[in-house]
Amino acid sequence: MNTNGERFESRPTAEGCNQIEEATRAFGETAEVVGTAANQEPDRILGLSSRTLMSAEQFDAMLESLDVPDDAPELAALASRPRVYAHK
Question: The organism sits in which domain of life (predicted)?
Fold first, then answer.
């Protein structure tokens, strides 16, 4: 964890303390658990455009949909018209 940032104090509820303790047991370091949560939560709340807030499956489906062209009947009609200029 970057220790060069600003310091802040927190007074979590009893339930919050229990969750931090459980996460610490799973991860192994309190500072990392709390620091990661403190850095991620503002992004979640603000919904920053630099973050994708969707499941991996939804994101993959979105990317795959970019490879499928939309129907564009007006564009197809324009493209089927005779050309004004002839290539020589």
Answer: Bacteria
